[in-house]
Design goal:
alpha/beta, 3-stranded antiparallel β-sheet, 27% helix
Length: 321
């Protein structure tokens, strides 16, 4: 397995972004291998960023295991948590000032509104006879990755009913004078006001043309949580922009999140990267893998004697599972 060039020959910048909330599994291995392979083939730079925003589930031992497992696969990177680099720190838990700056810019632009709804409130509103509730990212039906806790669902988030919107307008609102002095998000959620009805289109390098309708496929989404933690959506955009990532490689379960993030890129005046979403790996029952699938974690497969080639090829011997 060839390593990345020591001196990048192109402006390509990709990233590996594991979340240390459990051991990596086969699906992670193949997605991260694709990210490594694309950076290597482009003669570019690959960055290792640890997405450890979830204070309740992130563990140092999982972060260390992720680095070890990825090296075992033959994946190498130029910058990162263990190597340092110009974009340090490479753990999201140390990048709060960057996220606050992005939050303030969105607030000044009138793109955000405070939301006092709890999950219980939203479930009650969305359980009305005329509504349907989709499973959240941390529900049993979803792998919940990469999740940041109770108020940070990803692609399975139900469309927000607009309970705390101060206006039905679909566009950014002029900043209320009473909010102009706000310097900190405080202890409630902040949602991005999506332009209802706007079509968000992009061409995925791997999966082709994609189309989502704001307000239909997804609603006003959380960018900052009441417990003081930025959402995955905001942190991901802020980090990818700050690290000058030119292509994002990740699983297809985040396609809808890409539409949300494109709106954030626009609101922040940033250039969007290219997108490459990988097909998901499923278990024998056709369900996508999650970190709770311990039997298919890289740690367990290594202990059972599988080689990196077997893991990456998809040819997993039945007697090893």
């Amino acid at each position: 397995m060839a390593s990345l060039p020591l001196s990048p020959a192109s402006s390509y910048r990709g990233r590996l972004a594991p979340s240390p909330t459990g051991y990596l599994h086969v699906g992670h291995a193949r997605t991260f291998w694709s990210a490594y392979q694309r950076a290597r083939d482009a003669g570019g730079t690959l960055i290792m960023r640890m997405e450890d925003l979830d204070p309740d589930r992130s563990r140092v031992e999982y972060a260390e295991a992720a680095l070890e497992d990825l090296r075992w696969l033959g994946i190498r990177w130029h910058e990162g948590l263990d190597l340092g680099g110009l974009s340090a720190p490479y753990a999201q838990s140390g990048r709060r000032t960057i996220y606050l700056a992005a939050w303030r810019k969105l607030l000044r632009g009138g793109f955000l509104f405070p939301c006092r709804c709890s999950r219980k409130d939203l479930e009650a509103a969305l359980s009305a006879p005329h509504e349907s509730v989709s499973p959240g990212a941390n529900s049993p039906q979803s792998n919940g990755e990469p999740g940041n806790g109770d108020m940070d669902p990803l692609d399975d988030e139900p469309v927000y009913p607009g309970t705390c919107r101060s206006s039905e307008s679909n566009i950014a609102q002029p900043l209320d004078p009473t909010m102009s002095a706000i310097a900190d998000p405080g202890n409630f959620n902040w949602r991005f006001r999506v332009p209802g009805g706007e079509v968000i289109e992009f061409v995925d390098v791997n999966l082709g043309p994609q189309r989502f309708v704001a307000g239909v496929d997804f609603g006003d989404f959380v960018v900052w949580r009441r417990d003081g933690v930025p959402s995955y959506q905001l942190a991901c955009v802020a980090d990818d922009a700050a690290m000058k990532i030119t292509e994002v490689v990740r699983g297809e379960d985040l396609l809808k999140s890409t539409a949300r993030q494109i709106l954030l890129y626009r609101a922040l005046g940033l250039v969007t990267p290219a997108w490459f979403h990988c097909r998901l790996v499923t278990d024998r029952n056709g369900r996508r893998l999650a970190k709770r699938h311990d039997a298919l974690s890289l740690r367990v497969l290594r202990q059972r004697g599988l080689t990196p080639e077997q893991v990456l090829s998809g040819e997993l011997p039945a007697d090893k599972l």
